[in-house]
Amino acid sequence: MKIKHILPSFLILQIFFLKVIAFYPQWIEQNYSNKLYPSISRFSRTFFGMIPFSIGDCIYVALILFILKWFWDKRKTWKLQWKNNILTVLSFFSVLYFLFHTLWAFNYYRQPLFEKMHIQKEYSKADLIAFTQKLITKTNTIHGQLTQNDSLKVVFPYTQEKVFKMNVSGYNNLAKTHPYFTFTTLSTKKSLVSIPLSYMGFGGYLNPFTNEAQVNYLIPMYGFPATVNHEMAHQMGYASESECNFIGFLASVKNDDLYFQYSGYSLALNYCLGTIRAEDEKTFKNILKTVHPGILKNYQENTDFWNKYQSPLETAFHLFYDNFLKMNQQKDGIDSYSKFVDLMINYYRTSDKL
Question: Domain ranges in the chain?
């Protein structure tokens, strides 16, 4: 076999290997997610965490510029050397594909969290409504404690840098009940590309090559802690978006600070209300009347923010990311973000009170 064929052939082997390991989530859980990955993650976060800005963002920008330049340089010779050029592209992708999975993405194939935590997956409409009503009571209570006025929105008092540090205490509290949610070695940063992220419709992302949690620093602050906790869950090796929403919610509400609890409960309530609305508009309108107007103002603040950045770019990236998730063991695609509602309902059915 010629050298130029080795990496493209290796790409085919990688794809085949992933098809096989998809049938062995327990093996991935034990040998990668709980053994190899924690060491990789700890090293990456220790090394890159010392750098005050996002190295991952810089790598992505440099990578995009490199790819654009390469295609520009090859534009005149593409037809004549198309075989070699395709092999070069496949070789490059093969290396990235290997690093992507080795450094983080094998976690897509780990044991589902509902199995690990012995949580049921199904719930009834009555379960959803009952849980949402409990969430409303809890969120209203915390909102009232923070604002002393049910018509005022919550104004977040902390800096984003302080949120990064304070979020760890929520995970520490959560780990007392669930040790596998222990978080160590902070490497959470404000993304250098927050404006593009806003136009793409993303509140943050995990860079799988550096294990930095990148957070869109432009998003409304009342939801900032829950968003950061979501990305920190990715850092711990949970790839599923629904699972990270669930873990991020738990870490937020387990925090001793009321503003962080509000961030978690208001996030969960918003998803539950959205689920009810999709199923029964009349019930949604009735139940919405019991939510403090100030909470709804926070929701409107969030809606106004994302509406400001709506563009065809957002639609395109959501379509791309939807298919990306479906290719990586998340059959619901981008809708999987809202699927953490079933985890919440069934977790609190058998676990501690809200």
Answer: 3-109, 113-350
